[in-house]
């Protein structure tokens, strides 16, 4: 069985993962893919067991007065388990990032250099209510040749434990220790985040509270599956019908996600023509608007925005709206208030599009498309573990390649340095 | 003039650098290259001024009893300044990493996605005695579109100040604030390492003391220009003459560098035939040997190694030597004691070579070549700012590309997510 389960100490789990990682790095793709299929099959075969454990979490959630939204995120159903299994099979179908030659050539002295992708080693994923992350994260980590340490929230403890146990038992062809479920209290999380030299990366996937808790104590490298304060800017030359479709999609299609728009910027030349229809369309979808003075001149019924609205990730049907006089003003606003995630310009002006793409320091910059496309699946990378807004190592969707490092392999016939 | 000089506070310097970085990100290659040539020309034109400042540092160094080695690293000469200028011109001649498309394609919905290289923003480099790093680091940062904050050691304060001033004056076509020289005490360094959201990366280039000082306080991302405990393993099937050339080169060609060998591992099948000649050749170059019992059985005049010798980066003419019974034992030794920098196997056995390259978790793994080749220049990347042994973002030589991030640019014609 490939897992060590929560009764074990954090250090022991991590050491077992480290030992497993050494072996996993050289496990052939076919073996890893077979393990992911075995996990998917086992999940489907053991649905009653999973739903029983989930029912215990749901009951505790009701007793603890969890919100409807959190209860929904926590709940598993037959269909949701099948969807989790399908996700694992989809990850098995992706190309193996390990061994990919990303650069290389022959040097003047005859040395052959290849820069190849290798696993990071031990990847820890810390996540909140949704139990599906247990399998998603494990599948992504294993496919990329990493051992994984999973740390879910206590509210999903029974669900996570049964999912991890099923995965570990099904992945029996992988080295023991490949999947570890970290239990315990906040101190266990601190210990996990400080295992320098054992844990190679920790990915917190959750809200700002989790991010702050980890960043205060972490000694191992961290990539945050980040929040997003995303912007849509409607330029003077925009196709206004397309602009309306884009802002409505970016705001309402799934408002709780990090790639949803939180602020609409509109060029003053088109504010009078664009805003009334856009406001009506957004309100028809239940969006509350918070505008600056110039927006409220166009439509006085819009609530007044306060300074904090520009920096806020609402994650809800609320949109801040501001009129600007130029693409430069839009760029400056985004660079000042944005979180570096995803921004869109709607324009038919080539130089405005170019200025926006060059001038904004964000992970993903769209011309005439919704910010909602920032997603590993949409980008053709397959599943992802979140989106990164940091600049080092991984920026944008964190997929299989981002869970890897590289190594230089150099072959010679006796070369020494002169 | 492109610099703000040390009288300014760390925060003000960093904010000026941040503002400069926004502009530098879109400065054309030709402008950056012209600035590097102007810096090189100005350095050569102002050699007397540079040597005068350097003489003051040397005088203070003599008064403070600096070692001969440190005095040599501190000293500038006409030839050394010309070599620094030549280095800046060589960096100008490298391809611009900014704007390079590293991945891309058209999605099923018609969106065109490009993943392009962009500057990190503000890069801080913290370095010890050698004043040439002032120009090397500035040139690498500017070429890759980054503003640079330079923090040298107090022992080279006059030299660094005049070099930074000359560079900043010569680079007058670049945005003000592009080159900042950070002065002050240890607290100023702490402040620099904590400017989250302003400084995008800090690179300490120096010994273990500097590394510990930075890692204890840093809140901004750090890449260490790392130490190296490198190994050469002579396999049973090795060409023993090549093996002797390689270990002598890896140990003695420049023993103070991070890619020099510190431990020699020898397969027991060839220990009797290989060691006597290798020991003689190494001793002829002044190398002190510290062997395990089996080495001392072959040559009792070799000093006995102690446990700490296996983990030590000697950076001197000292070599630990051990006899092993298999490539697996060599791999385990390297993974246990190594620092993940550079390792070499000398062998004619394909499966031993493959096992060594797959099984060792280091940045660079050589077959039949010296570890001394781990170097940006040798790898055809041009100049480097050091070598990284960490797994995230940059592993191996830190050159122009490693001073960059990426950004996704996505172009559509009104796409929204279904």
From TrEMBL, chains A, B:
Q: In which pathway does it act?
A: Amino-acid biosynthesis; L-proline biosynthesis; L-glutamate 5-semialdehyde from L-glutamate: step 2/2
> What is the superkingdom listed in this entry's lineage?
Bacteria
Main subcellular location of this protein, as a coarse class: cytoplasm
The reaction(s) catalysed by this protein are: L-glutamate 5-semialdehyde + phosphate + NADP(+) = L-glutamyl 5-phosphate + NADPH + H(+)
Its job: Catalyzes the NADPH-dependent reduction of L-glutamate 5-phosphate into L-glutamate 5-semialdehyde and phosphate. The product spontaneously undergoes cyclization to form 1-pyrroline-5-carboxylate.
- Tell me its family: Belongs to the gamma-glutamyl phosphate reductase family.
Indicate what this protein is called per its UniProt record: Gamma-glutamyl phosphate reductase
Q: What gene does the UniProt entry assign to this protein?
A: proA
């Amino acid at each position: 069985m490939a897992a060590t389960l929560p009764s074990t100490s954090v250090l022991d789990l991590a050491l077992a993962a480290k030992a497993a990682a050494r072996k996993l790095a050289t496990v052939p793709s076919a073996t890893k893919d077979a393990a992911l299929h075995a996990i998917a099959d086992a999940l489907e075969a053991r649905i009653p067991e999973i739903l029983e454990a989930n029912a215990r979490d749901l009951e505790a959630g009701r007793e603890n007065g969890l919100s409807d939204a959190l209860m929904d995120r926590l709940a598993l159903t037959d269909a949701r388990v099948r969807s989790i299994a399908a996700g694992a099979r989809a990850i098995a179908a992706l190309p193996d990032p390990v061994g990919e030659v990303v650069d290389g050539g022959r040097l003047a002295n005859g040395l052959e250099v290849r820069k190849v992708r290798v696993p990071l080693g031990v990847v820890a994923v810390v996540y909140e209510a949704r139990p599906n992350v247990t399998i998603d994260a494990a599948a992504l980590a294993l496919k990329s040749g990493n051992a994984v340490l999973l740390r879910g929230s206590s509210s999903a403890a029974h669900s996570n434990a049964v999912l991890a146990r099923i995965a570990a038992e099904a992945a029996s062809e992988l080295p023991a220790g490949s999947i570890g479920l970290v239990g315990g209290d906040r101190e266990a999380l601190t210990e996990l985040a400080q295992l320098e030299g054992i844990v190679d990366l920790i990915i917190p996937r959750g809200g700002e509270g989790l991010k702050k808790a980890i960043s205060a104590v972490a000694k191992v490298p961290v990539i945050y599956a980040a929040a997003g304060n995303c912007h849509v800017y409607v330029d003077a030359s925009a196709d206004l019908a397309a602009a309306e479709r884009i802002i409505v999609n970016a705001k309402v299609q799934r408002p709780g996600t990090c790639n949803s728009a939180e602020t609409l910027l509109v060029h003053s030349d088109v504010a009078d023509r664009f805003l009334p229809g856009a406001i009506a369309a957004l309100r028809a979808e239940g969006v509350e608007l918070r505008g600056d003075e110039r927006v409220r001149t166009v439509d006085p019924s819009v609530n007044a925005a306060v300074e904090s609205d520009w920096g806020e990730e609402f994650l809800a049907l609320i949109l801040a709206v501001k009129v600007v006089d130029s693409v430069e003003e839009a760029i400056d606003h985004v660079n000042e208030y944005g979180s570096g995630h995803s921004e869109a310009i709607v324009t038919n002006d080539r130089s405005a599009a170019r200025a926006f793409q060059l001038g904004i320091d964000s992970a993903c910059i769209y011309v005439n498309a919704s910010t909602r496309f920032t997603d590993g699946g949409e980008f053709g990378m397959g599943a992802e573990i979140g989106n990164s807004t940091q600049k080092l190592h991984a920026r944008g969707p964190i997929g299989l390649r981002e869970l890897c490092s590289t190594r230089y392999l150099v072959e010679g016939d006796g070369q020494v340095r002169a």
